[in-house]
Amino acid sequence: MTGAIAPARRSVALVMLGGVFVMEGYDLNAMALAVPRLEGALGIAPTSFGLVFTALLVGIGIGGAVLAPFGDRFGRRALIVSGCLATGLFTLATVTAASTAGFLAWRALTGLALGAALPNVSALSAELAPDKLRATIMALVSAGIPLGLAIAGLMAPEVIALGGWQGLFVVPGSFAVVLAAVLYWVLEGGAPRTGEAHEELARGDGVQAQESPGRFRRLATQFPQLGVFLPPWWLPFAVFAAMLSLNAMNLYLLNSWIPTVLPQAGYSLDDAARIAGVVQLAGLAIGVVASLGLDRWRPAQTLLLMFGAMAACFLAVSLTAPEQGYWTQLLMVGVGGASAGGMVLPALCVYLFPARLLSSAIGLGIMVARLGAFAGPLVGQAILNADASPQTFFFAAFVPAGLCALAALCVPLALAVKRRENAVPSMA
Questions:
Q1: What pTM was computed for the model?
Q2: Which residues of the chain have pLDDT under 70?
Q3: Which CA distances in Å does 129 have to 115, 126, 231, 331?
Q4: Coil vs helix vs strand at 144
Q5: I want to staple 280 with a disulfide (CB 3.0 to 4.6 A). Which of 12, 150, 151, 205 is the partner?
Q6: Is residue 217 one of the residues assigned to a domain?
Q7: What domain range is 181 assigned to?
Q8: Distance between CA 82 and CA 77 in Å, rounded?
Q9: Rounded to an integer, what distance in angstroms lies between the CA atom of residue 33 and that of residue 269?
Q10: What is the pLDDT of residue 202?
Q11: Inter-CA distances, 18 with 117, 183, 207, 248, 281, Å
């Protein structure tokens, strides 16, 4: 599918694929920005929206597991375009909700559509990227998520002034519909062609089966994703999945509730919305620098610095009285770092796994990350229901960030597995 595509069209395709992540980021933030305004408009308390936030994530998980694999059969374009179109229509339909049950239903359907599209977007961006820049290109394409989150926050006051809370859903919904039409024209159709990575997979699995004829290994020749659970790859996958899950918990905890928590610390609703956008721009910058650290410096030290700085900033916020300028600077590193983690961690797979396991590791890692993502909004709801202080909320964010930093200490061991198995130069 990607071998004969012209360079100019390849570049346009990568930009448009990044647009899908921009749309996802905006859509993710739309609900969080709407929640503190719905009590006055519809009489719905913000603390009743924990399951609504989680419904989107459940939908993404189910869509990714059940619908996205059809991209291997019918082609990436079919799933990406149909997923974008359905996302747009379901997001637009969210404006008709008048109860938490209505919001829950539309957000769950939106999640299903996103789940069908996003894994195919990631897979196609990896297929289109040059081999020596795969980590950086993958990170830059997924940088659309913090960019979309930032745009939503920065535009929120003006969008709400023009279209009420409903405008927060009209903007990403309309963008998704237009993007679907553009992607249909830019992307090539048809099922993915077998490339070098697939040939390596076939050769590697065949050797594995001959060397270790156990039942599980034989099963792995039919279902390559099981290979990440086999020695020696289970260790890199465990480290990768742990960091991805913990960071996803923080990402969805923070993005779901910051527009509601910051007003409790003395911020206005508009200021809270703008800060929710500014911290995402910081995350975009952190993610680009960290992805270059993976490619050009040392993956383990890069991740340790990023997650360590996040944990320190959240701890500082939790121990100080609210002061808007000081807190905003700390949150740019803390919340921005969580968004950057969503960009950088999938690209880490390039260094942890051989080509024949790369897509399997990313796909299964994202599936595991949903466990943390599901928990994030519910943890935030429990903190708000307990009438805890904003400092308590940010201390809750410190815990997974600190655990990610500890997990980063294990990255050199995970990197050593690939060096040992494939004789690659040391990156730790």
A1: 0.69
A2: 1-5, 65, 69, 72-73, 131-132, 190-227, 355-360, 362-363, 422-428
A3: 22, 5, 29, 32
A4: helix
A5: 150
A6: no
A7: 1-193
A8: 8
A9: 9
A10: 39
A11: 12, 11, 37, 20, 15
